[in-house]
């Protein structure tokens, strides 16, 4: 019980600290913008640990962070193999195939106005549907291994990227297009020199959203059938054994992978779309 | 919008045609196995020989089997009319209370979705207001809200279900909690953007009226956030539905659209999988359309359409 | 050396079909522009001056009458890269440097790399932006961006320059300065210039010929040959009582 009171005390102290920091003049500096959320996150971990231990919460409900860290380090080799199976083989390959196909179709759609008017409403519609439901069908077609997971990822990332790319390719102003006409540019030149660079902010918006979808797709698709390997498999198997610390360890891997993937795409975005107002702050 | 109706119809007809054509090579191997079993001559004979042959080649060599590919009981790719018939049978032709009725299962999933959506949206709006009005909350919580969208939360849905079940919370509530979580963050991020959307000029005007925070909220910030709110609601409801469906997977649930998907996949009932998927698709489309309608009506009355 | 007009419009008409009925943007326009002239188009909003310029540039197609540029149709002239066009806004591509923006037409038209580099430097010197070759558009002021846009139109060998209210968005001091520079440029390059403007003093200062247009339907109501000498300082606007 003392641990719980300690947790409460720490929570309040950290909260007051953050309120103080947020209202000082230094609150706009870059390191302050990292410090305050870091304090917040760290406090949650501490409070979690203390409350779980203090109330003696059973391990099958919620393990404390210290135990999760222990399991994480102990089972690193299994976690790594799962990571390669799900993320590298399933999510990444599906992501690249899906992106390429979607951008290629978007370029085609933009060229032919009829296709755009017909396909875009359909694409918007499909993008809102529970695509994850196609997982059992794709497992049936492509088998249990990572190929079906890659297929699920392709379907999941295809429509957001298609819709965003088509929107981006249409983002040029009439004046910019007229300028190209006055140079007697042929459609290909106008595409490479104007439409494609102008579309990049939108394309990257789609790419960023799709990083999360790719990881979710690969993991959840494994719930529908998988060899004895993979993050989704490990999660559902561990739940069955009530080994929740392993489940949380896999979540830590997923969180790290998800953030790293998103961060990588965001860094590339900063390089390519340095000129866009949103990147210039 | 009217200009789009014709092209959309053409595209949909084109996709339907491609679907129908794809049925033949997808199902040909199964159809030929059935045909051989009922005594017909198949080129080449023996399922083993056919297994590695190209589907197109098999179709060319056995054109008599094409018709059969459209009416298999457990096809690899059901024909559109097969799915339509199954949909009809499991909705109109069944009593709503029957365990085989798609409407029954749809309602199970829908109730979890709606409850979760309401909780997630309510809490999301509250947190958004807190973030906009408290700098401490803004700096500590907002980065986590944005970062959490890169974490595949859906992957732990099964765990949440199991954990809650073990402390006695069963049935509707665990699924609703997952749905709530999935709609929570899009609503927070969108609502914060919306509440911050009024420009300096409009905020200064209120200052000249000596308006207090509460008046500023109700008269300026909240109305300005409506377009952003509706955009987030559309994303949120679709996410809630996915959450409810995935929430039905882990415990071998027997009720709900996700459960139908799972049992269809376990027992090889492909047509059942497709009809459950289409049921979920229609549900998602209907929910997003309802929000879209609410959006149009509200924004029109506010002159923001 | 022929005296053939560079731009020749005969009975030119352009009618837009709108929901509220037909709009006669241009009706029965007759005009000849000779080589080396500086022609300004002035008139109230909706008189068709921008539309006329756009027809010359093949950015709009006429619905009646004829127009030739260098003796051929506007489309052929456009494909032969016969003119440079300057819009009301600079319209520089934000992902290219100033030098990159000026290189844009040169890349499209297939000039050699060394040729491109030389032209970019020459034309930047002409508009006094030599130090800004590696900067990005958003790092320049409005006036400087517009100068870059003019430089871009001068970079390739086109005898005709079409300008649609290029200085409209700038403040008066910058505008006066750019007017002087444009006149200087014209004298040095001897291009044929079509210039649309709202400002009568500007038209008078810059042109050899002023075309006055009126709206509904868009037509030419007067063509004035400028009585002013070729070498003219800014003050002349005050002395001739044009203000």
Observed structural traits:
heterotrimer, A: mainly alpha, MetI-like fold, 12 helices, B: MetI-like fold
Task: Describe the protein in words.
The complex is a heterotrimer of chains A (281), B (305) and C (243). Helices cover 81% and strands 0% of the residues of chain A. Chain A is an all-alpha fold. Chain A has two domains: 2-57; 72-280, MetI-like fold. The mean pLDDT of chain A is 87. By secondary structure, chain B is mainly α. Chain B has helices spanning 2-37, 47-51, 55-61, 80-91, 102-133, 135-148, 157-166, 172-195, 200-208, 213-224, 226-247, 257-266, 270-301. In chain B, α4 (80-91) packs across α13, α5 runs antiparallel to α6 and α5 (102-133) packs across α11. Helix content of chain C is 34%, strand content 26%. Chain C has eight helices and nine strands. Chain C has helices at residues 49-56, 74-79, 98-109, 113-126, 142-154, 172-189, 200-206, 236-239, and strands at 7-18, 21-33, 38-42, 64-69, 83-86, 160-164, 192-196, 209-214, 219-225. The model of chain C has no long low-confidence stretch (mean pLDDT 87). Chains in contact: A-B, A-C. The interface between A and B is large, with 61 and 57 residues.
- Cα distance, first to last residue of chain B? 15 Å
Percentage of residues in strands of chain B: under 5%
CATH class of the largest domain in chain C: Alpha Beta
- Average pLDDT of chain C, rounded to a whole number, is 87
CATH superfamily of the largest domain in chain B: MetI-like
> Mind telling me which CATH architecture of the largest domain in chain C this is?
3-Layer(aba) Sandwich
- DSSP strand content of chain C: 25-35%
Report the radius of gyration of chain B as a whole number of Å.
26 Å
Low-confidence stretches of chain B: none
What is the percent of helical residues of chain C? 25-40%
Number of strands of chain B: 0
Q: Could you say how many structural domains of chain B there are in total?
A: 2
- Topology pattern of chain B, helix = H, strand = E: HHHHHHHHHHHHH
How does the helix and strand content of chain C classify structurally? alpha/beta
Report the major sheet of chain C. 6 strands, mixed
Write the layout of secondary structure elements.
The complex is a heterotrimer of chains A (281), B (305) and C (243).
Chain A: H1 2-22, H2 30-54, H3 65-74, H4 76-111, H5 113-127, H6 135-142, H7 146-169, H8 174-182, H9 187-222, H10 231-240, H11 244-272, H12 277-280
Chain B: H1 2-37, H2 47-51, H3 55-61, H4 80-91, H5 102-133, H6 135-148, H7 157-166, H8 172-195, H9 200-208, H10 213-224, H11 226-247, H12 257-266, H13 270-301
Chain C: E1 7-18, E2 21-33, E3 38-42, H1 49-56, E4 64-69, H2 74-79, E5 83-86, H3 98-109, H4 113-126, H5 142-154, E6 160-164, H6 172-189, E7 192-196, H7 200-206, E8 209-214, E9 219-225, H8 236-239
Parallel strand pairs in C: 3-7, 3-8, 5-6, 6-7
Antiparallel strand pairs in C: 1-2, 1-4, 8-9
